[in-house]
Amino acid sequence: MVSAQDRHRLTPQEYFEWEAQQELRYEYFDGEVFAMAGGSLPHADIALNVASLLKAQLQGRCKVRNSDAKVGITEDGPFVYPDVSVSCDERDRTAQKFSRYPYLIVEVVSPGTEAYDRGGKFTLYRRLESLKEYVLIGSEAKTVEVFRRNSDGSWAFIPYGPGETIELASLGIRVPMESIYEDVVLDKDDSGTGI
């Protein structure tokens, strides 16, 4: 991520007004904004599959949002764009600018984002009292890692591999690994053309 503002720190309201005029999406941290990098096609396909699977199972119960929707860690930020977020809190159902009470957050990881998704972003997300599960999905190999908050506040780590079914206890649903990766091509293109 590259800072788009080097001189003036923005208030949350200034950030919302400024970002609405931009072509790109920007995350907000302590008055600074950072451009969101585009993802690979497998990344986009996986995120769409996950959002679609969750929406189909949670219709009418919870609000499923994609990477165009911000999550606010507090009312004043930071504001981030997870790949998929799910909130079953009525306050988020009618939210207009950002969600504040997600139960589940999903990030599709790539080599360029993995360290941030596992480290800094997960540190931010753990500040959300509503968050019950954080899911990391591989974009280069069929891997799903679920971090589940225990009743004592600690986090349990549950890894899944090909052929397994992922249990999302926070939502009371199960998602087959193969459905997450349906129609996703994971082979790397060694030609460098991206074709």
Could you characterize the architecture of this molecule?
There is one protein chain. With about 200 residues, the chain is an alpha+beta fold. It has two domains: about 1-35, no CATH class; about 40-180, tt1808, chain A (Alpha-Beta Complex), CATH 3.90.1570.10. It has six helices and twelve strands. Residues about 1-5 and about 190-195 have low confidence and may be disordered.
The average pLDDT score comes to 90
What gross morphology would you assign?
globular
Secondary structure tally, helices = 6
Rounded to the nearest angstrom, the radius of gyration is 17 Å
In terms of per-residue confidence, which ranges show pLDDT below 50 for 5 or more consecutive residues? 1-6, 189-195
Query: What is the top-level CATH class of the largest domain?
Result: Alpha Beta
Q: How many structural domains in the coordinates?
A: 2
Query: What is the CATH fold-level name of the largest domain?
Result: tt1808, chain A
Number of beta-strand segments: 12
| Largest sheet, strands/sense/barrel | 6 strands, mixed
Task: List the defining traits of the structure above.
2 domains; tt1808, chain A; alpha+beta; 195 residues; two-stranded antiparallel ribbon; disordered C terminus
Structure, briefly:
This protein is of the alpha+beta class. The chain contains 6 helices and 12 strands. The chain has 2 domains: 1-37, no CATH class; 39-180, Alpha-Beta Complex (tt1808, chain A), CATH 3.90.1570.
